[in-house]
Give the backbone structure.
Amino acid sequence: MKKKFALILLSLVCVLVCAIGLAACNTANGTYYLINREGKVEMNTYIKLDGKKWEDNEGFSGTYKIEDEKIPFYMDVFGLPI
């Protein structure tokens, strides 16, 4: 479970980095894939941004908004150990 959570967190960080570049356009709609340490695209690890909502390949979802050069993601997480 910790590996899965770490992968989700890493995916969100990667998306955030991509989305910062798109913030100037004030749009981030689309599907973004994780790039692993070897530089290969992981097609089974992605996050979809649509309007003000996001969803990942694990079924997690939430909302986001573009604020200047930052994109805060909001997510409810249930059942994960602390």
